[in-house]
Design brief:
Blueprint lengths: L1 H13 L9 H22 L7 H11 L8 H13 L3 H14 L4 H13 L3 H21 L5 H17 L3 H9 L8 H22 L3 H12 L6 H14 L2 H14 L4 H13 L3 H14 L4 H25 L3 H14 L4 H18 L2 H15 L3 H13 L3 H14 L5 H20 L4 H5 L7 H14 L10 H18 L2 H9 L20 H8 L15
Length: 546
């Protein structure tokens, strides 16, 4: 328990600046954690062979043999026979009876220690070997013929068990109580190494040298068998270093031993949160809150994840409905909720760049995209975002250059290489079309515009530039624009024609080159009437629009 308390206080103190003292609230939080460990140890000590204490008691009653009148020696012999037959529970029962008859005989506790140690019931085994050492030492002090070997053997076994449990400082102290010529030097050196490694880990953690701390805790864990109290500070150090997968791994091991460990659940939930796996984060925070609904860290973690997800959902809903200004506002709010959440904020930034481009704020979209590249480096993802923003802003040559960079950086024969190649080709086509008739530009939409966005743009522009809606002086200009608007919509509203246009292929027969260029097949006024569900039109005339 002292080991556990020490590590918990190290974690608390490492987070406290001198100006923030006193630290009573944080100390209370650590004591709450310690109480959980105490409860865990109580459960462990009341369990044998993975069975609850009540079930164990029932099994012992069923297996109990009449032992009335048996001597302690006979009970010990019976325990050996039961052990040889594989009946550990009955062997422990016999030894318990022997200890009741001879409470001062260290042999009873030592033999029980051996049984429990073999079963890996280390908590109960440690209690037995402590009693065995204490009784043997008392017997040695009061006896004329000193039994040094018994005390040496017992104390050596106790020291080895302490190392297995990660209590290396106590293990060294036990070894040093023995005479030099009676000491197990190999075991003593192992205990010293473990002690020094743990001291280094604790010192580094307190000084916030998390890399050294994580490495030292890892080395110490190689020397112990049950390192649950070492896994927590190691996981904390890895979290501080940004090794979120390492944190998930170590806390997973700890939760396997102690499923309701609140600090482990918090660390694991936080690691999943930082990885952008919000559903897993929420599951871990909720699991902790089942045990302690008022646990501060888990409560705050759960609240923050829900808040971020809600803001993101609002932004996406506005984006899907074409409400760009609201989407931009929500994305900007979401990004400010936790500036340290890099995975989430990268995703938000990419969607924000798209919203800005769609809203027509190309200057800000380019600034965001360039900032994203600077922040995350020239990754494939960041180059795609910048190239898309450049293309939406009609900076076609720059887009071609950016996509070529992405193509060169992509792994050979990968999906990213295929995507980059396609984007280069699309940007080259857009560059060529920008010098001719650009249907996207005519309708005022991006090359990534949806069918709904294209239709909306057409309806608005067609009504604006219909010759019947302008003055006589503007009719010729309106007629030309009206024809271009109809031609653009005819191509972009047809998946097959749009695909050809995007690839730079001839859209209409006898067009004489790729892209737009005056090959409109349908009378623009007739086409307009069809789209607005009017009758009439055709030839060179048109129906008036009121």
């Amino acid at each position: 328990l002292l080991i556990v308390a020490r590590h918990l206080l190290i974690i608390v103190l490492s987070r406290v600046q001198p100006s923030n003292l006193p630290i009573a609230p944080m100390a209370l939080s650590s004591l709450s954690s310690l109480s959980l460990w105490c409860w865990t140890l109580v459960l462990l000590s009341s369990t044998a062979n993975g069975q609850p204490a009540q079930a164990q008691q029932q099994q012992q009653q069923q297996q109990q043999q009449p032992t009335e009148g048996w001597s302690a020696g006979k009970l010990r012999s019976a325990a050996e026979e039961a052990q040889s037959a594989g009946n550990t529970a009955q062997a422990l029962q016999f030894l318990q009876q022997a200890a009741t008859l001879e409470p001062s005989n260290p042999v009873n506790y030592y033999r029980r220690f051996k049984l429990r140690h073999r079963k890996r019931d280390y908590v109960a085994a440690l209690d037995d070997i402590r009693q065995a050492v204490e009784l043997a030492a008392k017997a040695q002090a009061g006896a004329e013929a000193s039994n040094d070997k018994q005390v040496t053997d017992y104390r050596t076994q106790k020291a080895k068990l302490l190392v297995q449990l990660g209590q290396c400082q106590q293990a060294v102290a036990e070894h040093e109580l023995l005479p030099n010529d009676a000491r197990d030097e190999t075991a003593y050196q192992t205990a010293q190494t473990c002690q020094a490694t743990l001291q280094q880990a604790e010192r580094a953690f307190f000084q916030k040298d998390y890399r050294t701390a994580a490495r030292a805790y890892g080395s110490a864990l190689q020397l112990v068998e049950v390192g649950s109290d070492l896994l927590l500070p190691k996981a904390q150090a890895l979290l501080e270093l940004g090794d979120f997968y390492g944190t998930v791994s170590d806390t997973g091991k700890l939760l396997k031993m102690h499923p309701q460990h609140l600090e482990a659940l918090y660390l694991r939930g936080t690691a999943y949160y930082k990885l952008g796996e919000h559903e897993q984060a929420i599951l871990h925070f909720r699991e902790a809150l089942k045990s302690d609904p008022e646990h501060k860290q888990n409560k705050e973690g759960h609240k923050l994840v829900k808040k971020l997800d809600k803001a993101h959902k609002k932004a996406q809903e506005a984006m899907n409905s074409g409400n760009w200004d609201v989407a931009i506002e929500q994305y900007q709010k979401a990004r400010k909720l936790d500036p340290t959440h890099q995975v989430f904020n990268r995703k938000i930034s990419l969607e924000l760049i798209q919203a800005l481009s769609k809203s027509g704020d190309h200057k800000q979209a380019l600034l965001e995209a360039e900032g994203y590249v600077e922040l995350s480096g020239e990754s494939i993802e960041s180059l795609f975002a910048l190239g898309d923003a450049q293309q939406a802003a009609e900076q076609y040559q720059q887009a071609v250059n950016t996509f070529k960079k992405a193509y060169e950086a992509a792994p050979e024969n990968s999906e990213q290489e295929r995507q980059a190649k396609q984007k280069v080709q699309e940007a080259q086509v857009a560059l060529k079309q920008s010098k001719e008739k650009n249907y996207y530009k005519i309708l005022g939409v991006s090359r990534q515009a949806t069918a709904k966005e294209i239709k909306s743009a057409y309806r608005k522009l067609a009504l604006q530039w219909h010759p019947d809606k302008v003055s006589e002086d503007d009719k010729e200009e309106a007629k030309t624009k009206f024809q271009d608007i109809g031609e653009a919509y005819e191509v972009l509203s047809d998946d097959e024609l749009r695909g050809k246009y995007d690839r730079g292929e001839e859209v209409f027969e006898n067009q004489g080159g790729g892209g737009g260029g005056g090959g409109h097949h349908t009378n623009p006024f007739q086409f307009f009437n069809q789209q607005f569900h009017h009758q009439g039109g055709g030839g060179g005339g048109h129906q008036r629009v009121h």
